[in-house]
Amino acid sequence: MQIYLPIAEVSVNAFLLLGLGGIVGILSGMFGVGGGFLLTPLLFFIGIPPAVAVATGANQIVASSVSGVLAHLKRRTVDLRMGTVLLVGGILGAFLGVGLFNHLKQLGQVDLLVNLFYVVFLGIIGSLMMVESLRALRKSRRGAPPARKKHNWVHGLPLKMRFRTSGLYISVIPPLVVGFSVGVLAAIMGVGGGFIMVPAMIYLLGMPTKVVVGTSLFQIIFVAAFTTVMHASTNHTVDIALALLLLIGGVVGAQVGTVVATKLRAEQLRVLLAALVLAVCLKIGLELLLEPSELYSIAETH
Q1: DSSP strand pairing (10-13 vs 160-163)
Q2: Does residue 84 lie in a domain region?
Q3: 301 belongs to a structural domain
Q4: What tens-digit pLDDT sequence spans the chain (302 residues)?
Q5: Which UniProt key words apply to this protein (predicted)?
């Protein structure tokens, strides 16, 4: 069933959009990532203009993240205090990121720079996660006791706060820096930033994986909402019809993903997320290296 998207000015199969929204929703509920790093390229592939894909994709991320957070709140796996600290840093970083993005846009080749950001960050994070996750999975299969968290430099910083849901007593500085960094990258790359936030929360802050998922979704809601509002008010690139179909699929998928996440062990979740991150990195990297079908593009200059 074809449906015409007025802002994108293309006709797309409605069931295909529902499926894309559902897939991203499942990932959101399972891993605590908004799914923008996957949804936006997928929308490119089916012919949605990049500006519309980024803005509308952010809108869908809000919906699927809200659905996932509600499910995690019922299971008490959301650290609201940690999420608030991360959010403060994220909003500040998003403001700076928007200004930086506009500056890079004036310099030209911003699309190439965004793709390079994807390849570098996804490649590094995915590789580190895969190595650590496989090591932890092997230890668990051998019946070895889980390694106790070691105190690192994070625990020696001042301004400490107790995060009871996460079982942590650490400085607020690292969460603020993590949130700020993700906010900057999210503004430049047009995503919620969960694929960076989740590993940082696990390996840097030492949060339990089950709590990380819900807390990350809580932070993503507001970062993605800020992005949507900025695009809708300045660029007018939010397609309501596209957003509605993605939203329906995303909300349903998030509930499914949350249930699946409770059935898998933490090590298995990390391996799956690492494999997904590396797959997206490889796809974007190949697009940078292979010769495009259209060698030239026409752009309007002011």
Answers
A1: unpaired
A2: yes
A3: no
A4: 788 887 777 888 888 888 888 887 777 677 666 666 777 777 877 878 776 777 777 777 777 677 778 877 887 878 888 888 888 888 888 778 777 777 776 776 666 776 787 788 778 877 877 887 788 777 777 765 555 455 556 666 777 888 877 777 878 888 888 888 877 777 766 666 666 777 778 777 778 877 887 888 888 788 778 777 776 777 677 778 888 888 888 778 877 877 776 776 666 777 777 787 788 788 878 877 876 666 555 555 44
A5: Cell membrane, Membrane, Transmembrane, Transmembrane helix
Tally of domains within the chain: 1
Put simply, whether the predicted model's pTM sits higher than 0.70 gets the answer no
Q: CA 105 → CA 112, 113, 188, 289, distances in Å?
A: 11, 10, 10, 22
What's the chain look like in SS3? CEEEECCCCEEEEHHHHHHHHHHHHHHHHHHCCCCHHHHHHHHHHCCCCHHHHHHHHHHHHHHHHHHHHHHHHHCCCCCHHHHHHHHHHHHHHHHHHHHHHHHHHHHCCHHHHHHHHHHHHHHHHHHHHHHHHHHHHHHHHCCCCCCCCCCCHHHHCCCEEEECCCCEEEECHHHHHHHHHHHHHHHHHCCCCHHHHHHHHHHHCCCCHHHHHHHHHHHHHHHHHHHHHHHHHHCCCCCHHHHHHHHHHHHHHHHHHHHHHHHCCHHHHHHHHHHHHHHHHHHHHHHHHCCCCCCCCCCCCC
Has residue 294 been placed in a domain? no
Inside any domain, residue 174: yes
